[in-house]
Design a protein that fits this description.
It is an enzyme of class 1 (oxidoreductase). There is one protein chain. This protein has about 375 residues and is α+β, with helices and mostly antiparallel strands. It has 3 domains: about 5-115, Butyryl-Coa Dehydrogenase, subunit A, domain 1, CATH 1.10.540; about 120-230, Butyryl-CoA Dehydrogenase, subunit A, domain 2 (Beta Barrel), CATH 2.40.110; about 235-380, Up-down Bundle (Butyryl-CoA Dehydrogenase, subunit A, domain 3), CATH 1.20.140.10. It contains 11 helices and 10 strands. The protein has helices at about 5-35, 40-45, 65-80, 80-90, 95-100, 105-115, 235-270, 280-310, 315-340, 350-360, 370-380, and strands at about 120-125, 140-145, 145-160, 165-175, 180-190, 195-200, 210-225, 225-230, 270-275, 275. The strands form 3 sheets. The protein has a 4-stranded mixed sheet with strand order 1-4-5-8. The radius of gyration is 21 Å and the shape is globular. The chain starts with 6 loop residues before the first helix and ends in a 5-residue tail after the last helix. The model has no long low-confidence stretch (mean pLDDT about 95).
Length: about 375
């Protein structure tokens, strides 16, 4: 087995490392304190063809595949999690439904500017009463002449309120089938549409620089041509692209764990107590060893899921495992790194404190870890067991 990155993935990772060091890291703390998403920096990312890594070139993307995408995320996520998380939401759940189910006209009209990084995209699923249970969404689309009228509220939506937001892809119930089951549709709602209101910016425990909002739809008319895919298939469409999103959040988690380990190692090599550097104490050495081992194990799971996706294999279980384990490793390693930093790690001016605050949401977003365990268990229990 060859565990080395392909040359194109290494080059992409180097490009992202350079971008992160020059355009993100020097300003990340400022963005966090101001709770401001740097749209100008995102547009610079687009100029380097980094905004549509999973989108084919014919629609303005680079189509590098998941292994190279994970490599890019390792670099960008190590620079700042808020920026990387916004880029991730844009690159996956905001863009992939259009790629998979959009018409050619929809792809040219909306997917192309997203993939080129000329605008940023958002996806609206979560609601005040619907999260893990996606079928519980109450936002409703009523058919009218020439289109649909949306009413409802979305919550915790990423990228919806920036000055470069193209629009938001919204999951809504449309009707009930013959057996009384809800039917769903996916709709693209451009920014500025009448009846579509972007709420106040939500103040979060972490991801301070990422734009997160409540969305309100009040008799919001959407023309028929804004329906993505078939009416009645919206929920299935969303679930079909979710596995790719899980790989991306796993990669984001890996990037956080790797950076937290790096920060911890750097600190214990320099900090002295009782006449020795912290790195000379066995207890600290054991902590570093545990962190390093878990980061490496997470890396194997994440890249395995990405490799399976790139090679056309079933990667649903692997993506769930990668997301589950990498997100929990990110939390453990961030906590352990703060511990070896001591009091300095608890000061907001320290870099590790920002990554520590960002870690928790990784166990929640893109399907909670409880949901990941459900997905994994269903797959494992369906397998034939040798007697």
């Amino acid at each position: 087995m060859d565990f080395s990155l392909p040359e194109d993935a290494r080059q992409l990772q180097k490009l992202c490392l350079d971008f992160g060091e020059k355009e993100i890291e020097p300003y990340a703390q400022e963005w966090s304190e101001e709770e401001r998403f740097p749209t100008d920096t995102f547009l610079k990312l687009g100029q380097l063809d980094l905004a549509g890594l999973l989108i084919p070139e014919e629609y303005g993307g680079a189509d590098v595949g998941y292994v190279a995408y994970v490599a890019a995320m390792e670099a960008l996520g190590a620079a700042d999690q808020s920026f990387a998380a916004a880029w991730n939401a844009h690159s996956t759940i905001a863009s992939l439904p259009l790629l998979a189910y959009g018409t050619e006209e929809q792809k040219q009209r909306w997917l192309r500017p997203l993939a080129r990084g000329e605008a940023i995209g958002a996806f609206g699923l979560t609601e005040p009463a619907a999260g893990s249970d996606a079928s519980a969404v109450r936002t409703h689309a009523r058919p009218v002449s020439g289109g649909w009228v949306l009413n409802g509220t979305k919550m915790f939506i990423t990228n919806a309120g920036t000055d470069i937001t193209l629009g938001v892809t919204v999951l809504a119930s449309t009707s009930r089938g013959s057996e009384g089951r809800k039917r769903f549709g996916t709709f693209f709602v451009p920014s500025g549409t009448s009846g579509f209101t972007v709420g106040r910016k939500l103040r979060k425990l972490g991801w301070h620089a990422m734009d997160t909002r409540e969305l309100i739809f009040e008799d919001c008319f959407i023309p028929d041509e804004n329906l993505i895919g078939e009416e009645g298939e919206g929920l299935r469409q969303f679930l079909a692209v979710l596995d790719g999103g899980r790989i991306s959040v796993a990669a984001l988690s890996l990037s956080l764990a790797s950076r937290a380990l790096e920060l911890g190692i750097g600190y214990v090599r320099e900090r002295e107590q009782f006449g020795k550097t912290l790195s000379e104490f066995q207890a600290v050495q054991h902590s570093v060893a545990t962190m390093a081992t878990e980061v490496d194990a997470a890396r194997m799971l994440v890249y395995r899921a990405a490799w399976l996706a790139d090679n056309g294999e079933d990667f649903s279980e692997a993506a769930a495992m990668a997301k589950l384990y990498a997100s929990e490793v990110a939390n453990r390693v961030a906590s352990a790194s703060v511990q070896v930093h001591g009091g300095y790690g608890y000061i907001r001016e320290s870099t590790i404190s920002r990554f520590y605050a960002d870690a928790k949401v990784l166990e929640i977003g893109e399907g909670t870890n409880e949901i990941q365990r459900n997905v994994i268990a269903r797959t494992v229990l369906r397998r034939n067991v040798r007697g």
